[in-house]
């Protein structure tokens, strides 16, 4: 049995914990262990699971060979800082769990990186390449031949048409759609319900129908 520590807590963390429960109910040898969280004190319960410490304390659990990790700290406008926090940990990449919900549909010709979460009713089509530490929430759709960088997030019911390319840390809001062959630059943010017809530069916020760049994210890189 593999025990999984979730980096984060409320929100996406609880969704991941529930997905682990669903897998275990089907006989998979995985179970949620608890959370590492920077805002709740150790011992606090989140969704019935304990906070085991802060995120920077992950190394304390590395000697427990049955423990794996998954990150749930992606957040709009904070993707860059949170990605750097995870990259700064000393957790080997092979200790991150790739979690695919049993109700997701993933092509056997798709490649998915370490620490990525694929939620229920997500559809990932052939020849898709997905990086590490991404999150695809319920009913997201990733079209054929898309390339998705590390630390990307797709909200519920969002859609990438074929051959879309996402840089690292792209955040796509719920119900947003992206036209085929469009490129979204590193750490850009697409607002919920937006229709993206043209490429969006990195570190910018775009929303609307059609989506237009509204402002630049102020990030200290």
CATH homologous superfamily descriptor of the largest domain: Hexapeptide repeat proteins
Indicate the percent of residues in helices.
Answer: 10-25%
* CATH arch. level architecture of the largest domain: 3 Solenoid
Radius of gyration, Cα only, in angstroms? 17 Å
Q: Which blocks of ≥5 consecutive residues have pLDDT under 50?
A: none
CATH class of the largest domain: Mainly Beta
> What string gives the helices and strands in order?
EHEEEEHEEEEEEEEEEEEEEEEEEE
Number of continuous helical runs? 2
Number of strands: 24
The share of residues in extended strands comes to 25-35%
The number of domains is 2
Spatial order of strands in the largest sheet? 6-9-12-15-18-21-23-24
Overall geometry: globular
Quaternary class: single chain
Mean pLDDT: 96
């Amino acid at each position: 049995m593999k025990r999984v520590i979730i980096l984060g807590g409320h929100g996406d963390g609880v969704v991941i914990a529930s997905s682990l429960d669903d897998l275990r109910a089907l006989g998979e040898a995985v179970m949620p262990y608890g959370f590492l969280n920077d805002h709740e004190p150790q011992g606090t319960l989140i969704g019935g699971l304990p906070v085991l410490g802060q995120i920077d304390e992950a190394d304390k659990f590395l000697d427990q060979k049955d423990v794996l990790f998954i990150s749930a700290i992606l957040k709009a406008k904070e993707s860059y800082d949170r990605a750097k926090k995870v990259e700064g940990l000393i957790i080997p990449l092979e200790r991150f769990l790739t979690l695919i919900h049993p109700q997701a549909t993933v092509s056997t010709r798709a490649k998915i990186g370490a620490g990525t979460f694929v939620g229920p009713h997500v559809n990932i089509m052939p020849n898709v390449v997905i990086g590490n530490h991404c999150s695809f929430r319920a009913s997201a759709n990733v079209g054929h031949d898309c390339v998705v960088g590390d630390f990307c997030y797709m909200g519920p019911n969002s859609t990438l048409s074929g051959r879309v390319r996402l840089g690292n840390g792209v955040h796509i809001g719920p119900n947003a759609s992206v036209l085929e062959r469009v490129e979204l630059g590193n750490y850009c943010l697409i607002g919920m319900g937006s229709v993206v017809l043209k490429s969006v530069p990195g570190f910018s916020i775009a929303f609307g129908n059609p989506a237009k760049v509204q402002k630049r994210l102020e990030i200290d890189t």
